[in-house]
């Protein structure tokens, strides 16, 4: 078994009277792809927002590489090696691919000038092209082109590449294949596997169980703010996972529907 990179122990988060996370415990290990599944309102987004510092938890503990961590902001999470790619919001559409690959962490000239330091464009272009080659999406991409000229799948790959290059140990993807075509979806799923094979840990939310079986190593299922089941993908099947998500035996429902 590989090393533990992130562990949540009995984390809680409420919004007024809504207990979005009741007592969620989860361990992520190095180099695995974990799919987080659950019905609408199960608490998936709240869980990833807790890990990424958007909604600091009300209680419970978070450990990063075995050390107790305090994640109170997105900056805290990034500093701990946790990068989150939210749907459609992770890129600046008007900026170039190269700028988006660095976004806020661009190479600068005269770094002692702090926020006033001018960008080092030749270095930015060189580093961006090298990264695009390394992640295998360089074929037709020009690092100077605006990012809004890219397809949805390419944009996802750019956002994931950015997370990878900043050596994020844990990359969290919120519905990475939402609104993508079939081919693009396969491209992103393939890329997720490559990211895993490069040693990163990926946690992703999806409503598409078929994608889970294509890419995940492990499935974690949430219901009503708790993690109710975890399964290795090779040890489970679609009906079992659907049953765990819904909290009822789906095969019985199917039989009943056929009998009507
Ligand atoms: N900012 C918020 N303010 C108030 N309630 C919230 C907030 N965010 C989430 N909730 C509530 O917390 C519960 C869990 O929501 P969450 O978005 O985490 O579920 P989810 O599993 O991601 O659902 P979906 O798949 O529909 O996105 C829901 O009842 C939701 O209405």
**Would you list the SSEs in sequence order as H and E?**
EEEHEEHEHHHEHEHEEHH
Identify the CATH architecture of the largest domain.
3-Layer(aba) Sandwich
Fraction of residues in β-strands = 25-35%
Assembly type:
single chain
Describe the structure.
The protein is 35% helix and 25% strand. It has 260 residues and is an alpha/beta fold. The chain has two domains: 1-81 and 168-259, P-loop containing nucleotide triphosphate hydrolases (Rossmann fold), CATH 3.40.50.300; 93-166, no CATH class. A six-stranded mixed β-sheet has the order 6-7-8-3-9-10, with helices on both faces. The chain contains nine helices and ten strands. The chain has helices spanning 44-51, 74-79, 97-102, 121-134, 152-165, 182-197, 209-215, 238-246, 250-259, and strands at residues 4-15, 18-29, 33-38, 59-64, 67-69, 82-85, 170-174, 201-205, 218-223, 226-232. The model has no long low-confidence stretch (mean pLDDT 86). The protein is globular, with a radius of gyration of 20 Å. Adenosine-5'-triphosphate is lined by residues 15, 18, 20, 38, 40-46.
